[in-house]
Write the structure tokens for this entry.
Amino acid sequence: MAETTTQTKQVEVFDASNGARIFRLPLEVFPAYMGYAHLVQHGDRLTLVDVGSGYGNSHADLLAGLEQVREAHGVDARLDRIDRIIITHGHIDHFGGLMRVKEAAPQAEVGLHRLAKPVLVSYDERVLVTRTAVEDFLRRAGVPPERLPGLLEMYMLGKREFKPVPVDFTFGDGDVIDDTFRVIHVPGHAPGLVMLLVGDVLLTADHVLPHTSVALAPESIMPYTGIGHYIESLEKALAVEGVRLALGGHEEPVEDYYGMVRRTLDGARGRVELVYEHCDEPRTIYEIALRIYDSLDGYSELLKVEQTGARVEYLHQRGRLAIDNLDSLEEEHSPPLRFRQV
Ligand SMILES: [Zn+2]
Ligand SMILES: [Zn+2]
């Protein structure tokens, strides 16, 4: 991890069909976990899309990337020259560095989808309300009581450090920002997640990535997320026309955007059916997760239980699964629930 120095991270440059130039800035957003911010130059305007996590090397990597843009490409990309900052969604690896960036870029206007606004302006409230929802979810998922405190602690990890940042503008699906970005709202992975179309280049953020199917939680924890929205948003992604190149918030650039979306959609539907098959007998979400995944430990335990819960919720919302032990729901607030095929 210490061997990933800022010098080895190369900024990549892409020209979009509308005349915009996109600089892809590599950031170590968490130890040994890479992400990307994008600096978009269109006419005399500079827009920074995402800012990294602010943890560890992330902020230094961002500054080093902007320095490379200045030295190698002759664009005066200092933070105090940036006109706008657009945040693609309310996850810490994309916006956590905003406080520090704003200190050096007080002139830059901050914008994001209106469903992501609460994350920036009422961060503590959001974290605590969600924590309660996570606890209810984990109880109903049948997580053994002795594992609950550990999982809740994992959920809160690093979450109390962000201080609210004012939002200057919000946008919605179909809006065009500065004649440069067309907004495509793709809820699922996060409520206010957007992709941004810049000419024939699509900044896909975390909606579709070449290798990873993104983390998903049930809507009972966070409204406007869940598998239903995610699958609809993948169908919407397929319908975006004229994408020559996709640049995600993680992993490498992709030329076969439509193939990537189709594979992602097939995978998402396949994993829903896998969960359905494991409900041939009444089972809790935790039991299903234990059967599907080789191991449940570390941070992945929380993610895997949440993903399984999201798929159970999707099937339950559509009447393909039903609760087998309704009687315990009559007696208790959050008993472990067993789901079976209808
Ligand atoms: Zn994300
Ligand atoms: Zn991310």
Q: What stands out?
A: The pocket of zinc ion (ligand 2) is lined by residues 35, 91, 93-94, 206, 249-250 (CB under 6 Å). Confidence is low (pLDDT under 50) at residues 1-7. The longest helix spans residues 257-277. The two ends are 49 Å apart (CA to CA).
